[in-house]
């Protein structure tokens, strides 16, 4: 199959490498001309995936029309805040769109909602799970899920993407998979704050457990089809790795905040986007619309944007009204 990948960041580049090694035809679109030239001449993405040599058969372009004319499957791998403007440059759409990006834009939309509103694509799928680009690029064992309402498309993508080190499961729960991917980034910022304050193991384990509960409550209210999605790769799997991995951008942002850094200086020193920073505000707006409590995400917003002291935010969470632990099944409809 012919895959056109929008975005030559770490994950877009690693995914291009994966597909090329599977024998698929791949074209990678880079916004910046100098990055495209680097990919062509040096077969390496030194900005986002240094030290990883790329297969020579990966084509590279800065011409979005060329990418569109080339591909059968359009892959979205740009930051969520750029998805709408990037897709709006396309002229004829594509039969299959596969999304790799995780977040909610300022208009309170997942990528699936953005694609649906553009109404120029036949079938939408989303791939998510614990899949740090650096590990995938080094062929380390990774498992993910690809969700689409069209089961035949999910199974087709599963077949062509899977290999000896990258295993793909299928799902029909597009909303559940997308919400899991968006919210885990916000929870991971909170996990990073804990690391920055001293790396408290009890606190982080509690955060992950209550975090998946918060994600599941919100996701089901948003329209997720299967509660078990949140117990799978896109849910607890991705949450655990994003809250604990040294590769996690969102965890890193929280860690620096926990150590006393300002958000603006942390972001200024990062090459890559921490999606949780952009997601938390529209997420909280959506939670009000859906009448769902999201206390962890709320405190993350206060720490990032309202100057709340991280220790005070944790204390306020700990002093919330006492209640029975709500078992996971009791939040399911």
TrEMBL record:
Pinpoint the Glycerol-3-phosphate dehydrogenase NAD-dependent C-terminal domain residues. Answer: 173-315
Query: What's the superkingdom here?
Result: Bacteria
Q: Which residues bind NAD(+)?
A: 7-12, 133, 249
Enzymatic class: oxidoreductase
Its GO biological process terms?
Answer: carbohydrate metabolic process; glycerol-3-phosphate biosynthetic process; glycerol-3-phosphate catabolic process; glycerophospholipid metabolic process; phospholipid biosynthetic process
GO molecular function of the protein, one example?
A: glycerol-3-phosphate dehydrogenase (NADP+) activity
- Annotated positions binding sn-glycerol 3-phosphate: 102, 129, 184, 238, 248-250
Q: Does the keyword Hydrolase apply?
A: no
**Which subcellular locations apply to this protein?**
Cytoplasm
| Keyword set, alphabetical order | Cytoplasm, Lipid biosynthesis, Lipid metabolism, NAD, NADP, Nucleotide-binding, Oxidoreductase, Phospholipid biosynthesis, Phospholipid metabolism
The record's Gene Ontology cellular component field reads:
cytosol
Give residues annotated as binding NADPH.
10-11, 31-32, 48, 102, 133, 249, 273, 275
One Pfam family named in its UniProt record: NAD_Gly3P_dh_N
Give the record's pathway.
Membrane lipid metabolism; glycerophospholipid metabolism
Positions annotated as active site in the UniProt record: 184 (proton acceptor)
Which parts of the sequence belong to the Glycerol-3-phosphate dehydrogenase NAD-dependent N-terminal domain?
4-153
Question: What SUPFAM superfamilies would the database entry show?
Answer: 6-phosphogluconate dehydrogenase C-terminal domain-like, NAD(P)-binding Rossmann-fold domains
Which reaction is catalysed here?
A: sn-glycerol 3-phosphate + NADP(+) = dihydroxyacetone phosphate + NADPH + H(+); sn-glycerol 3-phosphate + NAD(+) = dihydroxyacetone phosphate + NADH + H(+)
Question: NCBIfam families in the record, alphabetically?
Answer: PRK00094.1-2, PRK00094.1-4
Protein family membership: Belongs to the NAD-dependent glycerol-3-phosphate dehydrogenase family.
Main role?
Answer: Catalyzes the reduction of the glycolytic intermediate dihydroxyacetone phosphate (DHAP) to sn-glycerol 3-phosphate (G3P), the key precursor for phospholipid synthesis.
Q: What is this protein called?
A: Glycerol-3-phosphate dehydrogenase [NAD(P)+]
Q: Which organism is it from?
A: Pseudothermotoga thermarum DSM 5069
Q: Which gene holds the coding sequence for this protein? A: gpsA
